[in-house]
Predict the 3D structure of the following.
Amino acid sequence: MMWIGLAAIGLIIILALGFYAGRLLFQLKEQNKRQQLARERRTATIIESIQVIVKAMQQQQCELSEGAIRICNLLEALPLSSPPDYSTQYPKLYEFFHKVSGFAILEARAKLPKSERMRQDVAREQIESEYENAVLKELPALQSYCATLELN
């Protein structure tokens, strides 16, 4: 009789633990779905931002250096499981990005003396004119890449 009671208690414990494990697995599955949806939304937002910046650069509504800095940062922020090496895919864009990303921006720029700001502006404009054609030639390939990401 005592063995039957112990077996019943053991069975109840096993069923309770099985139910709890099943509930945890269900919650994990739901959490993974939410994370995947958030990743997809973030990817879509980043792709849309890149496309808008590319169009603005092509239509000369955005400075080339500002667009390059924004695009390179957005590409690196894409939540892809195995992202390509963008610096080899778009070498001139990344080369340009590395040259112009060293200039002061926002508050740091505001704190610079006027002569230093002018010197940096002239240097940046010189770099922009040097890279303009090469960067603009890479933008259609970037648009195509973004279009392929949208389809996935």
User: Anything to note?
Assistant: The chain is about 85% helix and 0% strand.
